[in-house]
Amino acid sequence: MANDNEDVAMKEARRRERQSALENADSDIGLCGWLLVALSLLFVVATLPISIWMCIKIVKEYERAIIFRLGRILRGGAKGPGLFFIVPCTDSFINVDMRTITFDIPPQEVLTKDSVTVSVDGVVYYRVQNATLAVANITNADAATRLLAQTTLRNVLGTKNLAEILSDREEIAHSMQSTLDDATDDWGIKVERVEIKDVKLPLQLQRAMAAEAEASREARAKGSATLS
Q1: Which residues are bridge partners to 84 per DSSP?
Q2: What pLDDT is recorded for position 223?
Q3: Cα angle 43-55-75, degrees, rounded to a multiple of 5
Q4: What is the pLDDT of residues 112-133, one digit of tens each?
Q5: 170 — phi, psi (to 5°)?
Q6: What region, left, alpha or beta, does residue 36 occupy, with left being phi > 0 and alpha being psi -120 to 50 degrees?
Q7: 61, 81 in Cβ contact below 8 A?
Q8: Which residues, given as ranges, of the chain have pLDDT below 70?
Q9: pTM for this prediction
């Protein structure tokens, strides 16, 4: 438990360092940049009160806004929820949804450790934990997480034999969740849960297993009859 807490604390510290580096790296917009900002502010003052509607923005309770000033992320991190202000002409912003998102992992054909081909699908629950990293470090965090989940499922199941896949779903799901969470940490993504939904066996293998189970039941029945 102590090791888990230390790992969480270290991840959080690294995440803060990355966010600080993004916000502070070359954050000075230069003399020309400040002149443009000043001109924009003069424009706002000259066109009051109409211009105030161009400055006031609102984000919902479950959203955060990342503000860019002349293409650079504004210091202070994500804004919201509620009201915030931007400078027209020089500022733009991107809204990031912070709610938990779920998606299905399409059925993946996997060759197990004991050379059996199975089809496995699952479901992943994740949310954006750091809006700044999710915008600045990855083009499309949702698409990247979906593709990574598919490859992680194949990689994890490829190290298991068929019996382990059928009996240790919780352990496999936990291993996938830990792997995905570590891989998406730089994107500001927190993978909360992974579930294995269904494991489909080849038809021939299903018939063989059914025949073996039937033979086992018949053998037990014969043994009981002999004893009686």
Answers
A1: 57
A2: 63
A3: 105
A4: 888 888 899 999 999 999 999 9
A5: -65, -40
A6: alpha
A7: yes
A8: 1-28, 204-228
A9: 0.77
